[in-house]
Structures are given as structure tokens and as C-alpha cells.
Amino acid sequence: MEATTESKDNSRAGNNLAISPLVTISFLYACGCFLAPNFPIPGSAAFLAALFTLMIAGIGYFYSYRSNHRVLYLLFFLLGILSARMALIEAASPLAEFSGQGVALTGSVATEPDIRSGEARYVIRVAEAHVGEKAFKGGKVLVVARDPGKVFGYGDSLKVRGVLRSVPPPGNPGDFDYAAYLARHGIGIMVYTRGDGAVLTGSTWSNPLAVLSLKIKNKIFGVLDKLFSAEHSALLKGIAFGTRTAIDPAVNEAFVETGVVHILSVSGLHVGLVLGFIFGLTHILKMRSGTTILTVVTALLVYDLMVGLSPPVIRASVMAVLLLWARHVGRERDWPTAVAVAALIILLANPLAITDAGFQLSFAATWGILFLGPEMVKQIERVPLGCKPGLKKALAWGVAVPLSAQLSTLPLVAIHYNLISPVALLANIAAVPLTGIILLLGILAAVSGLVFMPLGQVLAVPAGLSLDLFLYLVRLFRHLPGAVIYVPSFPWAIVGLWFGLLYLVVMKLSGRSMKLGAAVSVRSCGSWAARSAVFVLVVLAWMGLIRWMGGPDTSLRVEFIDVGQGDSTLIRTPGGRVILIDTGGTAGELTGKTAEGTGMRVVRYLRREGVRRIDVLVLTHPHEDHCGGTRAVVERLPVKLVVVPPLERGVDEAYDGLLELVRKKGIAVSTASAGDSLTVDPAIEVSVLAPFKPLSRDPEDFNDESLVLQLSGKGKSILLAGDLQEEGQRRLLQYGSALKSDVLKVPHHGSALFLPAFYKMVQPEYAVISVGPGNRYGMPSTKAVSELERLPSKVYRTDRDGAVQMRFDGRETRIKTGRKELRPAA
């Protein structure tokens, strides 16, 4: 994924790969941090245990390391667990228990604000907070200021009045965990405010170098906005500084699918380019080695502060400084130790950084380039190319660097993004070299524009052409056949298996063995414990792989996706057919004004679940919270048939435009009403119970004209009642006892507009309410929930439980919910 400092000499002593104790300690500490969420420990116990562990580790190291190193390794593993647990406890805010209540707080802006369209986000270091008569001190909160009258900056002291909002865990399995993201930054609660809810009261002490760095960055941003188009300016900000909020979501998606998204996240590639510029400058000025190192450290510190001190940037900067210092003092450039030191520095400062995708991808890519790369070069050089040795080696490294980075990050990209990009290697070879040119020309144009705008405008022309070429190449590779393969979610054991296989292949090809410090080499190790551990790890990994691949699934699966305030239900039949009923939707999504909405949330869910096509897409009625996400779905997944209620054209302009788009994509559109049936899979029956003809043209009546489906299969019956209200439910009562179903998708998000007689006629064992948290409609109605529970029905709600996944195999019913910690699975 990224280029870093290269090492062409991988062996340190003959054919042995020696692993220093520091590397082992860093690795085990990182493993402990990664596993920490599985070891809940009270705060006081975590602190005392961490202190005791640190003392024992220190005493053991200085007193008798050679005979106690295995114990010390174990202690550092435990220390990683305890440190991460303490970080989680520290991030938890006591204000979280007052979610939904008003708060008044004072504090200072701790980082650069995140400015978005219509809002500003500030990380506030709290001096004092008041909720009613209760007072709190310390901690950090994220303040979201909607329609801000004024934007504040780093170091400003603010007084904020707003509403506390806790961040729930993700509702759908595999969704981005925003709560965990905030916890990594020490934040446990959010505060929402509007207009003048945030007021400047002064300023506090702030890092002068950080203030200077951010001022320079903001001035550069201002010039970029004047010199370039909005698209080009947003891309330059992303490439140079990792600022991606202004980038078009479609462009960002193209970068992800072609495997070049790392260009928009400041990493080793960017640090390497900065180093190249500094080295060129110091060479011209003929600086001495010591002065060069000082210049490099200062420049990297300023750049790191500009881009936000993310783990990939810190990793690359620490490694660069360590390797430069080793060269300065005449020591061997030991890249494994440099990587270990960088990881340890980051994780000691923030143990939760181990769960950050950027951290994982950055260190994986670095390991790939430095460990796999040299062996790849040797293998490529053996191929007869008919060119000079120097050119042959350069070509070999040109292929080995991106290939080794892609191989080492492949499982991590797959587990985080659910995709594999076969074109990533070609895209990186073709597009990445342009990054240096774009950075050089773009920054030169911006700096020149600060001094003399006409000169900046002249330099902006070639920079703009380079950006156009870059975008052209990305889009070209994206549209190649087989450019991206989406894969379902899989267990982390497979990631470990992949890295183990890469390691074994390189060790086999190079003929090396591994030594752990002064310990015996692994090749000659006869320890039954070591062999048993390796055997258990391999077995577990293969078990995870077999379970992930699985066999043919002949169960009926009904999954109610968490789409917030809306509806979307996925049905997978015993024969492998896929029915999607509604696609959710947010404001502006039906007309295409909102590019990144609920539709993409549905698409990501389908991809994680291994759905690659949709046989039937049912849109129950034209309201945006049911069909707004359709545009995103049909543009990214093949759909055979769309079924809609028999509404006349002209009842809703946006809805008509959506159906026109569907037809233009070559998708058949069919209408259905009461008495019809859908033939999808012989193993199930799908009956259409509503709407009844004639239909109303009043948009307010769309709810009662919803398509209502009843599915039967595997001995179960599921009633999907759309948004029916009292009148629509009254019409359905004519079916009598045929309405009885095991599962009811509760109509109209559990609103108060229901008939008790309808619920009694259906008599569901399970009732699922698809609804958004804290919605302004007051859904679900407590009266409706009470009525269902009195039947009795077990009620699931997507606002509380997240996605509700039901599996029927004819013998038993298995139910899982997205938020397991809030509602245990049935």
C-alpha cells in the first residue's frame, strides 16, 4: 500500500534471520493490545496489575534476562492487555449516562477542527461540565456545531451549551465502529449544538510549533482553493495532507477499489517524498550529516503536526530518523528494530491504535516491502530480460515494492473493505509515480501563490493536468473487467494464516532460519511447546477458513438491516436466491442529491454478507425512507427484476425518475398487487397480500398502498407489512386466519396508527420494528410495543438491537442481533 525506506540486505548473519528481543517484546505487547477488548478488567485492578507487571518486567530484565526472557515476554503480552484496558476505561466518559440531556461545559480545542458542509467538529478538552446540578471535570468530548456562526481553531477556549449524545456500537455486523474510533482518541461522548451554542471565551496555552504548522497549512489550503477547481483542490489536500472530507465519495470509492486509496492517507509514501525533497535541498546546500538529521527531524515534525500525527505518519517518521541516525553513527541499519521501536512508541502513547486500520495497513506494508521485497527482487532478477544489470535491478525493485506491499496488505484490505483489487498492482505502478509530480507541482504552486499569485497560476496548470491524468488512470483501471472482487467478512484467523504462509515461503526460498535473540533457532528447536503452539495456530486458522467458506446453505434467511429511520429486508432462500425488500433512504437520496447515504450502507451490508446479485428488488411504496437507497444499490449490484405497486406515473416526480433510471440500466420493472405471487424459489412461496385496487393518487395515502408480502418456507411464515396504517391493516383483516405468521415486520415502524385486531390476527412469535434511534416521529409507539408484548411476541427493534438476522432450517430458529451487548441473541 505504501513505499518506505528500503533495505536490500535482509540477512544479518549468514542464512539466519535474527530477531532482537525488542522486536519480540514489541510484537507481544501489540498482540496484548489487540486482544484487550476480550479481557474486561476493572479500572483499579488494571492499574495495579499494570504497575506490578511493569515492576516485575524491569527487575527481571536487569537482574536475570537470559534465564527469564520467556517470562518477560509473557509479562509484556499481559502489559499490552492491561494498558489497552486502561485506555478504554479512560476514554469512557461519566457524561455518557446523561445521554439526551442538556450540558454546559467549558474547555479548549485540543486538535485542529474538522470543518464540513454545514457543521464544524471540535475535540474539546473539558475543564468543567455541568449537567443539571452535577459537575464534572476532565476528559474529552466531541462537539458537533451545526450551522456554526463562527469557526474556532486549535487552542481556543470555548463555552458550549448543547445536548449530550452517546455513540452506540454499530447496528450492522461489520459496520464502521464510530464509538471505537472515538475511544481511540480518548473520547466517550458527543455534544450537539447549533448556531451560537459555542462561544469563544479566550485562549489557552498551545504548542507553538503546532500553531505555526496549522497556520501554514491553512494558508496553503486557501491558496489551493483559489488556484484549482473544487475537485482538484480537494484531491491535492488529500494527497498532500490526508484531508479527505471534501473529496467526492464516488472518487474516494474509485481509489479504494483500485487499491490506491493510501495516496489519500498520509503515510510512508508521503514521508518518503518529503524526505527526498529535504535530502535534495541539503545536498545542494552541502550540509553535514548532523545538520541534515536536525533539518530532517524539524521538517518531519512540522509536517507531522500539519497532517495530524496519525499512526502511519509517526511510524514512517520514527523509522526514517532511526535509520538516518544509524547511518550517521556508522551502525548497521536494522529495519526490524526500527519497525519495532516505531510500533512501541505509538502503542505506548495509545494502546488502542492497534485497532486502527491505518496502523495495521502501514506496518503490514512496511513489513512486506522490507521482508518480502528483497527476495522478490532476487527471483525477478533470475528472469532473462535482456537488459543491463543496473536497469534490471531497478525494474525488479519497481515491481517488487508495490507487489510486496499489495501481498502483505491483501487480507487486511479484504477484512476492512471487503474487497480484493486484482488491478491494484498495475494501478500503483502506473499512478503512484505521478504522486510525486503532483505533490511537487501542487505545493510549489501554492507556495508561489502565497508570494505572487500569477506565478502560482502558471504552476497550477501542469499540476492540474497531472491530476487529470491521475484521475483518468484511476478510472481506467476501475472499469477494467474484474477490477474489483468483493468478498464476505471472514475471521481474523485467516489473516494470521496468510502472514504465516508468506513468512514460510520467503524463509524457504531464502534458505534462512529464524533466531529469537540468543535463543536456539526455530529450525533446530525441539521444544514440544513451540511445535504445539504452531500446530494449534495452524489448525485454528484452517478451521476459521473452512467455516468461512462453508458448504451449501439450505436454510431460509431473513435479515432486517439497520438503516436508521427506514426499512430494508434481505431474504436469502434455500435455493440461493436473493430478495431485497426496500433500500432505506435519507433526505436527498431519492433524487440523487446525496451521494453517500443509506443506500451505500445497504450495499456494504450486502457485500459483507456475500451477496453479489439481487434476483428481486421490491420497493413497497415511493417514500424516501423505503426506496431512497435504490440508486446506490442498482448502480453497484446486478438486479434482475424490480417489483413495485401499480401506481400511475406522475404521483411522485422523484420516484418516477428513479424508475426511469432503473429501466435505463436494463432492469425489468413489474407491478404487483393483492392476489399476485412471486416465483423466486420452489422451496418458498411469496404471496402478495396488498395493495388492493383501486389505488389512491394522494401521496399521503402511499403508506396504506404499500406492497405487503407473506413468505412461507421451512415451516415458517413471515409477514412483511410495509408502512400500512389503520386503513391498510383493516383491509388485510379480510384474509382472516391466513394472516397468522411466525414473524411480523411491524408496519410503519411501530407507529401509534395501528389496529390491535391486526396484531391479534397475525399473532407473531417474533415482531421486528425497523426504526431509527431518537427519531422525531416518536417511533416506535409505546402503545404498539406494549400491544405486541401482550400477545406475547418477542419484540426486536433495529434502533436498540441493530440488524436482526433470522435463520430457519426446518428444525430450529436461530436469531442474531447486530448489537449483542445491548440485546443477547435468541
Structure summarized in a few sentences:
The protein has 826 residues and is an alpha/beta fold. It has 24 helices and 27 strands.
Describe the protein.
With 826 residues, the chain is α/β, with parallel strands linked by helices. It is built from 24 helices and 27 strands. The strands form five sheets. An eight-stranded mixed β-sheet has the order 18-17-16-15-14-13-26-27, covered by helices on one side. A seven-stranded mixed β-sheet has the order 19-20-21-22-23-24-25. The two termini are 41 Å apart.
Estimated share of beta-strand residues:
15-25%
Largest sheet: 8 strands, mixed
Strands of the widest sheet, in order across it, are 18-17-16-15-14-13-26-27
Poorly predicted sequence stretches spanning 5 or more consecutive residues: 1-15, 516-530, 821-826
Query: Which word captures the global form?
Result: globular
Would you tell me the overall average pLDDT?
84
Number of E-state strands: 27
Provide the structure class.
Answer: alpha/beta
End-to-end distance? 41 Å
Query: What is the helix fraction of residues, given as a range?
Result: 40-55%
H/I helix tally: 24
Oligomer: single chain
User: Taking Cα atoms only, what radius of gyration do you get, to the nearest Å?
Assistant: 29 Å
